[in-house]
Amino acid sequence: MLSKSLIEDVLTAALSTGGDFSEIFVEDRFTNNITLQSGKIETSLSGRDFGIGIRVFKGLQSVYAYTTDHSKDGLLKAAKNAAQAISGNNLIQLPPLVHESVETVHPVQVLPLEVEKARKAAIMKQAYETAKNYHSSISQVKVRLMDEEQNVIIANSEGNWIEDKRVRSRLAIQAIAVRHNQMETGFYGPGAHQGFEFFENLDMNHYASEAARIAVTMLDASPCPGGKFPVIIDNEFGGVIFHEACGHGLEATAVAKNNSVFAGHLGEKVAPEIVTYIDDGTLPNEWGSINIDDEGEKARKNVLIENGILKGYLIDKFNARRMGMESTGSGRRESFRFAPTSRMTNTYIAPGKSTPEEIIANTEYGIYAKYMGGGQVSPATGDYNFAVMEAYEVKNGKLGKPLKGATLIGNGPKTLQLVDMVGNNLGHGAGMCGSLSGSIPVNVGQPMIRVSEITVGGTKGE
User: Fold this and answer.
1) Domains with residue ranges and CATH for the chain
2) Mean pLDDT of 13-34
3) pLDDT surpassing 80 at residue 142
């Protein structure tokens, strides 16, 4: 994409006013986004995005600039503009750039760019037909297929130069069930750090049928009672609560500025011994997985909480300076338009010893949240509010009637401390996470867990 000599010139220009670190991020991204509705392709968008980000550090000062002009003059101008915000007397001599090869732990068999859209449309129609034919009450099905190939070069004034290819694929299925004046929605959105083979190997019957089943089931749901109850949260996307309410609080973006309830508590007990919380970007072909982060650091498994003890944070290069710690390979960004900062990859609660059946059987009364919906959280406090897409009453150790309108309200760190049972059925769910450096693919995950008490917003009385 850019020659080695040009990259060296840009890095040198960025240091010309006394910066102590410079970095260049070159991105060439190809995307496809297809939508099918009412059995027909509604939109089909393909695009290419190319640009370069340039960053300069001086102590605890950071400056970022980006450009789509990849000419030598354009790049040197962008680098010098970034450098103008930095002043210092010590000029660094750029060491020779040493190319480092990337070990790909997420094999791709079929690049999406090499697959004609007719094959992609066939996959989508299969999902549509499966969901639409699930039940007569299904009135509408919407299917989105997304794939992308992102090629990057990352080089810096420490002499590092590395290239990477990232390929991701995702299918999103939304089903709407209608009865009289009532309408309910179901959704499932599996994804992977994989090529077109992901779609061909996907258990379409499972995912499409589940999206439809959720919508149909909720037609018969009773209003959820409000109050404080034990809550069982199922695996996979159930992990979104701890991603939002705890995971963001463990990112250096918040910790370095003391804007997190976890700041300054390394080595302390923050959860029961049965809770181990991990961020692992090395899981093969998972949606949130990476080979390297967007600062060129190799992906790794970061144990954040181990047997209830706070062990570490997710740290990027700049916040590592603030904290006096090392990067954990957690610097991520949406694109060249964003400076990287500390972000999650695949974050999950490790499996415990209880079976799902045991967890339900040991709950006299409570709420079972099978599938979570969207929510809001304050990273500084960990206070959250999440909708439940599919919920059930638990009574005398057995699942009861479906419930609608359930909302879980609480505080992430406090909820973490109230986890009293952890299942053995770890599962991951794909999603997109928004933060300071844009929207990025992440997995959230956990086995089934039970929280001894959560405030449940619903309809008082029945």
Assistant:
1) 4-219 (3.30.2290.10), 222-457 (no CATH)
2) 97
3) yes
Structure tokens at 133: 């034919």
Could you give the maximum distance between any two Cα atoms of the chain, in Å?
Answer: 75
Q: Are 69 and 99 in contact (CB under 8 A)?
A: no
Burial of 246-283, coded b for 16+ CB within 10 Å and e otherwise, reads bbbbbbbbbbbeeebbbbeeeeeebbbebbbbbbbbbb
Backbone angles phi, psi at 38, to 5 degrees: 55, 35
Tokens of 220: 């018969």
Q: 170 in helix, strand or coil?
A: strand
The predicted structure's pLDDT at residue 459:
67
Dist CA 359 CA 106 (whole Å): 34
- The total of other beta-carbon atoms located within 10 Å of residue 88's CB is 14
Q: If pLDDT is split at 50, 70 and 90, which confidence band does 415 have? A: very high
H-run or E-run covering 386 = strand 383-395
Please give the helix or strand (H or E) that residue 280 lies within, else none: strand 277-280
Higher-pLDDT residue of 93 and 62 is: 62
What is the model's pLDDT at position 462?
Answer: 42
Query: How many CB atoms sit inside 10 A of residue 109's CB?
Result: 12
Average pLDDT over residues 368-375: 92
| Cβ 247 vs Cβ 330: under 8 Å | no
- Token pair 């989508």: residue: 124
Burial of 433 from C-beta contacts in 10 A (0-12 / 13-18 / 19+): buried
Other CB atoms within a 10 A radius of the CB of residue 322 amount to 13
Residue 188 reports pLDDT greater than 80: yes
Judge whether 30 and 149 are in contact, CB under 8 Å: yes
What are the φ and ψ backbone dihedral angles of 417, each rounded to 5 degrees?
A: -70, -20
Q: Is the pLDDT of residue 461 over 90?
A: no
**Tokens representing residue 94 in the block:** 């750029």
Query: Is the CA virtual torsion 424, 443, 432, 57 positive or negative?
Result: positive
* Residue whose token pair is 């967890």: 359
- CA Rg, the chain, in Å? 24
Tokens of 329: 């390979």
Closest CA to 5 of 87, 72, 78, 84: 72
Question: Strand (E) positions, 9-60?
Answer: 21-37, 40-58
Question: In angstroms, rounded to a whole number, what is the distance separating the alpha carbons of residues 24 and 102?
Answer: 17
